[in-house]
Records
---
Amino acid sequence: MRFVAMKKAYLIDFIGFVIAKAKNISHLFSMAYVNSGNRCEEHDRLRSMRLEELRAEIQKGLDSGEPTPLDMGAIKARGRKRLAEARKKANS
């Protein structure tokens, strides 16, 4: 009889343990859900900020004056000149 009572006591303890763990897991899932929502809000806020910065940069470009044709040859020439000057300075 004593053995059966011990088995019931262990079973009751085990059931209590399982219930406690289940509550804890439920709490963890709830916290994960809340954290996920917070991350989404933060992501939306950062995305909104980046879009505003991009709109401001586009507006600055539009306000800078009339567009001119892109001359890649001139850009490359300036870059090559700067590189040559930097190399000359490094060798001195």
---
Amino acid sequence: MSAAIYAWFYLLGEGADPAPNPFELRLQLARDFYNCGLAQSLVSPGVTNGAVSIKNGQREMVIAPAEMHVDASALPWSMDKFVEFVMADVYSVHGLSVRNRNRV
């Protein structure tokens, strides 16, 4: 969760510096740190299939615990319509081959 918080401040925090360039490697790394850190902090202890628990509560961090509040009012669907949420990076894609197209 710490990585997600620090990455959020870099990506969206209010500061004196200008916003990062979207094509800059540091922004892409911060985005990946945010996504992975947030997803890992939502996994319940003992879960091995990548299912995350999106609910209010305290998350333990190295420095101090962080309180998380979920506001689902902006979502187009009700949260009770979903069985579970699974992190996208736990999936493996097999069977696709590289297909190069050359225009003449």
---
Amino acid sequence: MTRWWAALIALAGAVILAIVATTPPAPVSADAPATAFSAARAMGDVYAVGGALCATALLLPHVRAPAAIVAVEFEVVSKSYVNGVVPSETFTLST
């Protein structure tokens, strides 16, 4: 009988450990320090790249126009420079 209790306790410990290990951290607000990742600041960048389309419906298909692709590439590269990251290569997407 004691083997069952030991197995049950080990199983319960494994379940608790699995839950704790897979729980994501709480999101950080936009007023967090610049050195910390903030989901609110990141969504601002996502909306800037995606425009009004992204703000209204995230599941709509992207525009496949060369001008839109160049605008998104410019936005991403310019944000990289602002954040102190210098891209070493730029890639262009075929339309």
